[in-house]
Amino acid sequence: MPFMPVKFNLPKRVKLAQGLWMLYWFSVIVGILIFSLGIFFKIELRKRSEMMDNNESHLVPNLLILMGMLACGINTFGGKVCHDCLDPIKFTKWKPMLKMYLLLCCGFSMLLLLTALLCILMQFAVYLTLAEGLKNGIKFYKDTDTPGRCFMKRALDLTQIEFRCCGNNNFRDWFEVQWISNRYLDMSNDEVKDRVLSNVEGKYLMDSVPFSCCNPGSSRPCIQHHLTNNSAHYDYDLRTEELNIWMRGCREALFSYYSSMMNSIGALVFATIILELADMAGLKYLSTALETMVDPENPECESKGWLLEKGIKETFTELLAKLKMLGKKTNQVEEGRDATVDTT
Amino acid sequence: MALMLIKFDLKKRVKLAQTVWFMYWFAVMAGVLVFSMGLFFKIELRKRSEFMDNNESHFLPNLLILMGLITCVTNAFGGKICYDSLDPSKFAKWKPMLKNFLVSCMCFNSLLLMTALLCFLMRIPLQFTLTEGLKNGMRYYKDTDTPGRCYMKRTLDLMQIEFRCCGNDNYRDWFEFQWVSNRYLDFSSKEVKDRIGSNVDGQYLMDAVPFSCCNPSSPRPCIQYQMTNNSAHYSYDHHTEDLNVWKRGCRDALLSYYGSMMNTIGALVVLVTILEVAVIIGLQYIHSSLSTLANPEDPESESEGWILEKTVKETFTDIMAKMKAMGKGSKVEEGGEAVVATVS
Q: Where are the transmembrane segments (chain B) (predicted)?
């Protein structure tokens, strides 16, 4: 009993072939879209790799680029097959490869599923990389004279301005790090000496933040220094002052940016899987409809199309039986070979 | 002696009609482009109208939008004429209006050229508007509690960050305005009272700039306050310090931004004018070649096409003579009225 059989006559077959051809071309465009989204994601990761210690994983974008190219190639081939299938001569040359092609499509859909899952799951890795990278970024903020780190200040300032965030978790992270280089500290000054000595590690710590933490939406000029000292500024209370500097931490801001990007890409890949399954079903119907023509010489005869030749259970048991046979054959051949080697 | 005479047979006429049809559709797209450039320019002016005192002239973008629409309509009509020109029955209905259409296209072209010229000249009034607007912007920077001006601070800060500029001509403009609101000044403090007293207008002036003037590429944390006092900061000389705050003035920055936009749009309009001239010439050839068919019944007969029926000089003298005749015709009317007056 075939699975989901459908009767076909010539107009129906032609319609199926045309519809399937358009669907394949739509899938090619979707493949190009996935490819370009992979490139976009890769570029976005590279742009901010300084915030991730230059050690972010490019697995997901590379996989997306590869999947995009494969999707284009596979779907173009499928479209070509559809285009040729209404001409019996051309179709006979494609006929033998169709089964392999459908298996290949199955495998590709599995890979797409894996890619979509990775898109969703790799967000954890991005989160951890960001936490580490931002901590180091804040630590190396002052090292504008150290080769390899001299642009960290600029990158972090621009990130804080662009993403409207301050520090790793919040602005207090800046209080724990010396973010002014010793080159600009007057070590002969008593105040500086006091501050440096009051600290175990000899760091010049302040309750101040860099200018890039300032919120332009504040109604008063930005208060960057002596943030915790309410009496240092007129009419200022740290606990109620919300608009002075950005309250959000940069790890959260960057993570939400990347996570929304990865979620959208993951959703698109899921949609592509469904599209690929539709393509495969359509092609299966078309190939079975063309193979079961009652009278091969007459193109206008009726035919039947199905998804599976037998029911799902029977197909499954057959597959298992085939695998077992394959297993037995290889075992027997190997044992036979070992036996002959032993006897000689 | 016709200007630039060309002989046409059926094939050549068909090719000409097809080419001119393509050119008309390309010109329609160019018209859409001019329309969208006008819209884009209008939006950009509106976005920053706060820095132009909300009184910037929208004449140029409105003119571009109008020109774009007229271009689309005129060229679509021309394309329709070309499409119909190969069918003698359809062409016969367009024939009487062709001459008027060509003349109106010529007038429209001169309008386009005038628009392009305006694009290049609008820079000058824009400069004055920006100077005035930015000066007021800085004056109202502190008025974050005055309705209608409460967003000036935010907008000016975001603009200085985005365009990497400070002040009107340079950062010293900020020294001439009080940009800290009186709400945040402690009038009981001696220092504040001294500063206000030392000034004729009673303004709290400082040699300080807002945080949005800070340059993130500076190797040291931003020095915003006491900028002209070298001894207030360690190892600081404001004469040699290049990277601390943005050196460029915002008027220059905005002017170069809008200037390059207007130059590009102007160049594009000039190109569209050249395209329009080409399609007018093409249509004139079609018109003249279809009017001079050796045998009107036989579509395959030969014909001649030209740009002007007589030479340039003769056409010019003809036009002058016609205008004189029209002038004399109105004199005849006057004479007629005089006769009527005397009779009655």
A: 20-41, 62-81, 101-121, 265-286
Residues sharing a CB contact under 8 Å with residue B192, sequence separation 6 or more, in sequence order: B185, B186, B204
| Amino acid occupying residue B22 | F
Whether residue B287 has pLDDT greater than 80: yes
Q: Is residue B147 less than 8 Å (CB to CB) from chain A? A: no
pLDDT by residue (tens digit) across A15-72?
Answer: 889 999 999 999 999 999 999 999 999 999 999 998 898 888 899 999 999 999 999 9
Cβ-Cβ contacts under 8 Å, B216 against chain A: 153-154, 157-158, 161, 212
In which residue are the tokens 């010489």 written? A297
Contacts of B204 (CB under 8 A, 6+ apart): B178, B180, B182, B185, B192, B195, B196
Tokens 């679509």 correspond to B76
Question: How many Å apart are CA A9 and CA A289, to the nearest integer?
Answer: 9
Residues A159/A253, Cβ–Cβ less than 8 Å = no
Q: Do A185 and B234 touch (CB under 8 A)?
A: yes
B212 to A179: CB separation less than 8 angstroms, yes or no: no
Interface contacts A/B by beta carbons within 8 Å: 74
Q: Which chain A residue lies closest to B219 (C-alpha atoms)?
A: A144
The H helix count followed by the E strand count for chain B is 8, 2
**Phi, psi at B308, each rounded to 5°:** -130, 145
CA distance A167 to A213: 8
Phi, psi (deg, nearest 5) at residue B309: -65, -40
In sequence order, the β-bridge partners of residue B3 are: B308
- Written as six digits, the tokens of A131 are 């936490």
Q: Which of A153, A217, A222 sits opposite B211 (nearest CB)?
A: A222
Please answer yes or no on whether A211 and B224 come within 8 Å at the CB atom. yes
What is the domain partition of chain B in residue ranges?
Answer: 6-138+259-309
Alpha-carbon distance of A233 to B190, in angstroms, equals: 14
Which two three-digit tokens encode residue A285? 């119907």
The answer to whether A104 and A74 are in contact (CB under 8 A) is: yes
Which DSSP helix (H) or strand (E) runs through B6? strand B6-8
Cβ contacts of B216 within 8 Å, gap of 6 or more: A153, A154, A157, A158, A161, A212
Other C-beta atoms lying within 10 Å of the C-beta of residue A48: 19
Per residue in A270-300, pLDDT tens? 999 999 999 999 999 888 888 887 666 676 7
Burial class of residue A96, CB neighbours in 10 A (0-12, 13-18, 19+): exposed
Q: Is B178 on the interface with A (CB under 8 A)?
A: no
Q: Does B212 touch chain A (CB under 8 A)?
A: yes
Name the amino acid, one letter, at B329: G
pTM: 0.81
Alpha-carbon distance of B65 to B40, in angstroms, equals 10
What is the CB neighbour count within 10 angstroms for residue A327?
A: 10
The vertex-B198 CA angle with B194 and B203, nearest 5°, equals: 90
Interface-testing mutation among A211, A225, A226, A243, with chain B (most B C-beta atoms within 10 A)? A211
The CA-based angle B78-B81-B84, given to 5 degrees, is 150
Strand duo A303-305 + A6-8: pairing = antiparallel
| Chain A residue numbers touching B211 (CB-CB < 8 A) | 211, 214, 221-222, 224
Helix, strand, coil shares, percent, chain B, to 5: 65, 5, 30
Q: Give the whole-angstrom CA distance, residue B292 versus residue B305.
A: 8
Task: Report the SS3 class of residue A151.
Answer: coil
